[in-house]
Design a protein that fits this description.
With about 100 residues, this protein is mainly alpha-helical. The protein has a single domain, classed as Up-down Bundle (Chorismate Mutase Domain, subunit A). Helices cover about 85% and strands about 0% of the residues.
Length: about 100
């Protein structure tokens, strides 16, 4: 028996909800790691940002996005948003 469009929509939406949860928990874990890095930087009076690291990460993200069939421009925007938030958090730790 073929699934109705309503059943298909519900199935896809449940999958999306699961993936959204994975994204949020993954971001939470990522920010826990960057918090630890921020503490090290603050303790050792290191600069908040590392331009070379950011550039290499952006290249890496673009490569991964291409492999994942995700718009690399979109992936870069997301990554830059995350980096911006990390820098804000690191600057707060320095104060």
């Amino acid at each position: 028996m073929n699934k109705s469009y309503k059943e298909k929509l519900e199935e896809y939406r449940q999958s999306i909800d699961r993936l959204d949860s994975i994204l949020i928990y993954t971001l939470g874990e990522r920010f826990e790691k960057t918090k630890k890095i921020g503490k090290i930087k603050a303790k050792n009076n290191l600069p908040t940002s590392d331009h070379d690291r950011e550039l290499s990460q952006i290249k890496r993200i673009i490569k991964i996005a291409n492999e994942a069939n995700l718009d690399p421009v979109f992936a870069e925007k997301i990554f830059k948003t995350i980096i911006s938030e990390v820098k804000k958090n690191h600057n707060k730790m320095k104060k």
